[in-house]
Fold each of these.
Amino acid sequence: MTNKVTLTQFIIEQQRELPGVSGMFTSLLNDIVTACKKISHLVNRGELIGVLGSAGSENIQGEVQKKLDIITHNIMVDALCWTGHLAGMASEEAEDWIKIPEYYPKGKYLALFDPLDGSSNIDINLAVGTIFSILRCREGVDPSLEDFLRKGSEQVCAGFVLYGPSTMMVLTTGHGVNGFTLDQAIGEFILTHPAMRIPPETGEFAINMSNKRFWEPPVQRYIEECLQGEAGPRGKNFNMRWIASMVAEVYRILTRGGVFLYPFDFRDPSRAGRLRIMYEANPMAFIIEQAGGACSTGRERILDIKPHSLHQRVPVILGSKNEVERIISYHKELGDTAVTQKP
Ligand code: AFP
């Protein structure tokens, strides 16, 4: 019988190798896994149980909430608030960080999550996912917002669950990236993609082309060169993908390479991009770098950014290392003048 390593076994065996990682961390990960299994079941059942469509409300981001945005947010909060592993939580769907009720014990970790990334896809039956990030909190004091606003390089764990044809979990604790497939028959995630690595070269980019007129010149130049194909300066043809679900884009890049861009654009200069640093860019950056890729705003490494607010947005360029570094070089060539140039 093939030795199918379950996620639980994998986490416990990793815990033995991680200095200072207590059973609390292992239990916290298992709590997140349980919540994601519940979400997977709901996403899979869809309209059979009436969870599709709009909730008729907006979140802090000013985005129309899907019913599943709220349901999955509540599943994550309910699964994590009582466990005694957390000192607090933050969610894309909640304006402020979420305190642990007084009647529950507090732990030493902070969990930040996007409970349903790509939710605009849910009604058209395309892949969505849950993204999570774990920080260590100061012990013996009540957490404050400042405990959350930490550089992505301080994360102790990051992961996502992709609810696609298979339900996949991708996880890093800073010792590489591993992928697990949910075996629905036994309700366990099984290690199916050990030690995931991103090829440094690629011929595939992912960007929402409808925003082209709003991009800065370095991104305009990069995409134009890709579109010119083998007749252009790159001397090769490129393929394009856009799934409008970051978790699906990142998973594709982990399996075959590629570059994903949601860059700064001029539609609303007060918003540096679309993606949120705390629970989208930072966890994905940790995973991508641990798999040998790179993740940048074009001007700085995402994991080096000191966040100033919980729902801060950043430009995101991530994937195959050599391609990301080329795009960074285009930003350097154009300097900061690019930001002031209007389309
Ligand atoms: P939603 O969760 O609102 O669908 O946004 C998903 C997302 O944050 C990210 O997962 C996608 O890559 C990106 O937005 C898609 O943005 P566009 O809809 O502007 O293409």
Amino acid sequence: MAAHYIDVILPIPLQKTFTYKVNESEAEFLQKGMRVAVEFGKSKVYTALVVNIHTQAPQLYEAKDIHQILDEKPIVSPQQLKHWQWIASYYLCSLGDVYKAALPSAFLLESETILYKNEGFGDESILTDEEFLIFEALQHQPQLSVHQVVDILGKKKVLPIINQLIQKLVIEVREEIYETYKPKMVKYVRLHVNYENESSLQVLLEELSRAKKQRDAVLTYFQLKSTKKPIKAKDLEKKSNVSSSILKALVDKGVFEFYHLQTDRVAFKSNTNGLKQLNEYQQTALKEIKESFNSNDITLLHGVTSSGKTEVYTQLIQDTLTTGKQVLFLLPEIALTTQIITRLENYFGNNIAVFHSKYSVNERVEVWNNVLQQKSKAQIVLGARSSVFLPFSNLGLIVVDEEHEASYKQYEPSPRYNARDAAVVLAKLHGAKILLGSATPSLESKFNAVNNKYGLVSLTRRHGNIQMPSIELIDIKEKHRKKEMKGHFSDRLISLIKDALEEKEQVILFQNRRGFSPIVECTTCGTSPQCPNCDVSLTYHKYRGELKCHYCHYQRAMPTSCGACGNATLDTKGFGTEQIELELKELFPKHNIGRMDSDTTRGKFGYQKIIEAFEAQEIDVLVGTQMLSKGLDFNNVSLVGILNADAMLNFPDFRAHERAYQLMTQVSGRAGRSKKQGKVAIQTYNPYHQILQQVSTNSYEEMYKEQLQDRWQYHYPPYYRLIKITLKHRDYTKVDSGINWLAKALQNVFHDNVLGPSAPAVSRIRNQYIKNLIIKIPPKQSLVKTKEQLQKVKNTFEAIKDFRPIRFIIDVDAY
Ligand code: ADP
Ligand code: ZN
């Protein structure tokens, strides 16, 4: 009788699958994509995934028995396994890394997992005796380890029981608590019932004849009322040009009443009549996309900001829904894109599942299961990059919104994949169509489109035929010379802000650096406080009176005197969002200034709160970092200011110019989206810089051509591919000798196509010294072969005892 074996993936960075023994009935029952509990290493138990079932004993080791089978049916689809294999081989990482990244952690129980009770659980009657013992234990102690469960039950094989407890919602494996979000309430006004008939109204208006402002408010109320929509208190104040105290007085008199509605409710009501009617340009684009899909599964939609790309996507989604196939809609960052989520939920509410790494484990498990079972409520999945790992089996369409976004690339930990590129492969595996959308496509995607690898469709008009914002460059060198600067604001920018605020319009100001200032320096001895763990100076956060490291989160109180010479002559250099916010408060004391950066958006819903406050026009001027460039859609913003364009342009990276173009164009795109042409003011020391010229004339094509020439000349993507290798260790000499050895070894194979070694701008982070090498792969050189050669060199490197403790990181298509 033949023995039976299974090959499994373990959730650890092993290069290979591992083989275990199973009995005949287990072999018959098991299918690829099911989980089994197995022991690996020194009595550690892991959840492994079956990828093969066979009768071939392993040659090099004795196969152990499995502990237990954990699933009745596969939880991973065959397409998924193929996709994972592609990721592992393309990004040079282990299948175990991909497996671990792909599955919600509740699916990956291991002996180190910690269990908590689910406070919401009440019905003990559904528990088996063993399950009840665990439930009971959790009434007496806040958490249990898997080892403790083993002790309580007096047996080793406990993962199936724990699995059951998770399924029955008795316990949680918790990393983060998910707070339920309370939508924001918006204040509305209505007339008190006493005044609803004509005659009492006449009386009222006469009564108010001497209170002119109050009378204006009431008259304007009737104008607004003719639109038959609820009237926001803010709108009424604005339209009738009265302050909130006037409305309050009218409420006190019993003329008006305030009431509150949830913002999302209101949106929902106005939107029950299905998808929006596409404008003529959108219709043409939709038609072209469909034609393109006939001959090319991958198509790039290059549509200027506010051209209504989302509306075009929704039509394609609608079409796919009717075929019964699944849709994946990828967004760069879920937290920042609540507006798009709300829009899509309004259209497709019952068919949408949002997959969010911030959701509780149970919710993620639920989405996973719904996708796996092809439930209609998860027919459309909205998610950030990790949603490419969901168990789709019937994908018809993938949309990658803002495809140029760097946040599609994962840096840490492995797998270091680009979700856009992984999505292209995923679509291919399913025979699905994929649409990449952007107002500022990555050079790579545009290049592929221009060279007919992808289809290309353009949308060049804003919805409503509103003109693209007019962009003005302000030479601050000149302004400084003429003493026309107040702090970091030119007189021109100040007057533009004034104009906008007078019109009751809103303003967005962009400064891509948080804190008050990035450098504190003693004017006596020149010393500036550094992070003890990283090679970087500490950023001053005035609001909290602290110095902080933006790399390792080290912080300490801002000293009153210099640590080196003792003089009280500390000064700041450079500026961040905090400083801009403070300057604004002095320049415009009567207006509300808001700030959006990672300091103000800490809590789970930090983003939504600020976005909603801005939407509700409770904030007049919003200062922020690159967060402001992510597809936000505000209808009352007429001015966008960029305080300092130069830092972006001078960044030492071959993508810096492309990025600066994208960032400035995207931020500019927030202006003038719904009523009239917006204005953009960019402050710079270099108004003749070609990128600024291109941004100000909206010349993407020119930027594209120029950047491509540079990329060709200096051997960068999209012509050459890059693999970045990073070594890290606490001991500088170790990293240094490691990288020098590696450079030589790689030069022997790849010759001139090895760049470096070099130290990054911040060459020590969290006490780890860092050195980089880059391998450039010419257009005709085999990718597979290159990677094999690299893997060989890596193996040799790791065989050298001295080098073994060094962290070796490979980043394919590094960003
Ligand atoms: P993009 O993603 O291209 O920047 P959006 O899809 O956000 O643009 O559209 C910009 C704004 O114009 C949104 O507020 C959207 O609701 C509105 N809009 C776009 N197309 C239409 C349409 N066909 N009918 C009504 N409103 C539209
Ligand atoms: Zn630090």
